[in-house]
Design brief:
The protein is mainly alpha-helical. Among the domains are: 7-52; 103-160. The chain has helices at residues 10-17, 21-29, 42-52, 74-96, 103-136, 140-160, and strands at residues 7-8, 40-41. This is Phage DNA packaging protein, Nu1 subunit of terminase.
Amino acid sequence: MTKLDSAETKTAFAARVGLTKGRISQLVAEGLPVRADGRIDVAVGLAWIEDNLDPARRNKGGVSPTPARVSTTLAEAKRLHEIVKVQRAKLAFEKEQGLLVETAAATRTVFARARAERDAHMAWVQRTAPLLAAEVGADPRATFAALDRMMREHLEHLADLPLGSFGDGA
């Protein structure tokens, strides 16, 4: 581990304090002490940052601090809380506008519609079989049995199709 009284490059010092190298260059322009060789004395640099940077604005450069120092600050927690509140408000508004539906309600509706369509198809077989048998001069029971079998096979085939194969309904 590097001693606190040693000097580091801007990149190494940036990683130590959780800032980007570009932000360290900005801080140098604002007065962060730098040695003649372009390196930063760690102890002096840390003291300068402590005296000159707002604690709530530190670690904002996208560079992760070392794992031992990872913790959520109060400011970060508040920011995340506000983001969640905005997302919830957006969802509530979209639901109020009718743009969103609950998954359980949609599932119940689709299931009820599918059951109604299945029942309507089976009822069509019962209504149509005697008419078809009379029209072609066939046995009504045999005609009903054949249509019933074919309709059930058709419905089973439709039930086996993946939902994506029906398109988006547009």
